UniProtKB/TrEMBL annotation:
Residues 189-220 are annotated as: Disordered. It comes from the Eukaryota. Keywords: Hydrolase. This is Alpha/Beta hydrolase protein. Residues 201-214 have a biased composition (Low complexity). GO terms for molecular function: hydrolase activity. Signal peptide: none annotated. Residues 33-136 form the Thioesterase domain.
Length: 300
């Protein structure tokens, strides 16, 4: 694991405008920093494999990776702590984009709720939006119907140490438990849909309460990168959990709030090999780069 958390993945650019012009982008503003949150395995290693994103990039790893500690407060506690980490590298009042692969996108959504709740306060971060990398809406499992969900067997490199495998699998297990009790954020419903449910639990969707007389913020602009392929499974007719709503362009997020996802960009590969081949890495790098530029353009 990296000594610093957040860790600096890509450093500040000496001449950002020159780099943007090389990429065919015209801008007078400095590129907005991007903070990428770990996936279910707990590490930010995959983000170090990305190509140049033309901006400062930070990675957040699960500080409980490799320990027996648990997040007793679940996803909300994780997000609260991660927001504190983000504030150690992003100056007060500064713009920021957050995102992540799989669980990282879900955590970004909860972090964004906390950031937007601070809007208007002195020094509050200016969140431009979220980039979800194949993050599937937890509500999708509630409407899976007769789909037979089968487990995915993690494929390890032959050189991966057993202690690393154990740490990753423990993080996966804890993440799954926490998602089972997570209540997705409530957003302002401007004539749209705002279905909020109990994560991966089998219960009916229920909306968390809001303070009387207060209105929640509108959802943060979110761009979704969607893997085009399905995860291979051994059982005929079975579907991996992450592919329950693979045919849905929004991966089930329209069940949460129809105005959350602003753009969907397809990327090659399936959920678990997005960062595994040069071709996939080049594609996801390009799409993260594009998504950052799009979020900056939405703000104007």
């Amino acid at each position: 694991m990296f000594k610093e958390n957040p860790s600096l993945i890509q450093g500040p650019i000496a001449d950002p405008r020159a780099n943007l012009e090389t990429a065919g982008i015209t801008s007078t503003d400095s590129p907005t920093p991007l903070v990428l949150i770990h996936d279910g395995g707990g590490t930010s290693f995959s983000y170090y494999c990305l190509g140049d994103l033309y901006r400062p990039v930070y990675g957040i790893a699960n500080p409980h990776y490799g320990t027996d500690e648990r997040w007793e407060g679940g996803i909300h506690e994780m997000a609260s702590y991660y927001l504190k980490l983000i504030k150690t590298v992003i100056p007060p009042g500064s713009k920021v984009i957050i995102g992540g692969w799989s669980l990282g996108g879900l955590l970004s959504l909860e972090v964004s709720r906390l950031v937007l709740a601070e809007a208007g306060r002195r020094g509050a971060l200016d969140l431009l939006g979220i980039i979800m990398i194949d993050s599937v809406c937890p509500l999708s499992l509630l409407s899976a119907g007769d789909v037979r969900v089968v487990p995915h067997a993690v494929e390890w490199n032959e050189n991966t140490r057993q202690e690393t495998r154990d740490a990753v699998m423990r993080c996966f297990s804890e993440a799954y438990k926490m998602l089972g009790t997570w209540k997705l954020p409530t957003w302002r419903d401007d004539g749209g849909q705002n279905g909020v449910g109990n994560g991966h639990s089998g219960t009916s969707p229920t909306a968390p309460s809001t303070t009387a007389g207060s209105l929640p913020p509108p959802p943060p602009p979110t761009i979704l990168l969607r893997a085009q392929e399905r995860v291979p499974v051994a059982e005929p007719g079975g579907v991996a959990r992450v592919d329950v709503c693979r045919n849905d362009r929004q991966l089930g997020w329209d069940q949460h709030h129809r105005d959350l996802i602003k753009q969907v960009h397809d990327i090659p590969g399936h959920h678990y090999n997005i960062f595994s081949t040069d071709e996939n890495l080049d594609a996801v790098t390009d799409m993260i780069k594009k998504a950052c530029f799009e979020l900056e353009a939405m703000r104007g």
